[in-house]
User: Fold these one by one.
Assistant:
Number 1:
Amino acid sequence: MDFDIEAGDETNGLYWDEVARALAGFNSQRKVLLSAAPSCVFPDAHLDTAIKTGLFDYVWVFMGLPATPTGAPNGGYISPDVLVSQVLPVIKASPKYGGISLWSRFYDLQGYSESIKSSV
């Protein structure tokens, strides 16, 4: 079960820990694997209490990037060559590295994902 909670009233995040506990104890014969993809803001407003239960089998961090400069009018674009040569070697060393996510498929039509695919 993947917890990818990105929206909603932050006070509702107080209950994700209870959901995690319920799922962890759901079936004694077959473990329910729990994973989470928290937001970059830490602690995550929605998942912090759930992650702190220690019940999650996986917590991955994905680096989200715009696929073109047009997709990031306020900045944040990293060219594929810089990503592959300078950024990926650093972040892939983390045991929590989950991968790269691009915004969005519309902007990716110029081939960003294809140019980084073998390095991710």
Note: DSSP finds four helices and five strands in the chain.
Number 2:
Amino acid sequence: MSTSPGMFGPVSAKGRTGQISFDGRAITITRGGILARGLSGSGTTTVPIEQVTGVDFKPTGANHGRITILVAGTVAPRQNSTRSSTDPMTVDFTLHSNDFRRVRDAIDTALRNRTAMTTSGWTMPPPPPPPGWAPPTMPAQEPSLADQIGNLARLKEHGHLSEEEFAVAKAKLLGL
């Protein structure tokens, strides 16, 4: 049994040793029976997608199929491993492997998108600037002493300053 996935979820599938669901933010594995309660207290394990490093998927074949959620520090179970029946991150199934494929695909998509967002440097596009915002401008720089003397010389050449006015203004700039 499965629910129809959106881009990241929700999807779920019920198997032989439990149920797995993914809502786009976290993966929840619920296991029933005394064995499950002995393993994890409540029989439910929830892992945020940020902690997931991968999904190991073995479709149904001669035996049962298996989906295992990998988190940092875990390894995928060996082929024909019996550990999956006691692993809180694994659900075995005999039928409905397409339901489990949908769960796997939704998780894989979320992992790929997370990687793409991380490597691009942005988790989302930057917000637009507020109304009326303008980028900062550089303060006007004061002209250098040489530029100021050059301006005075041009004023004198064009007849706007006399020789005496030029000499006084130049001496003032030079601090004399």
Note: The beta strands are 11-14, 19-22, 26-30, 44-48, 52-58, 65-71, 90-93.
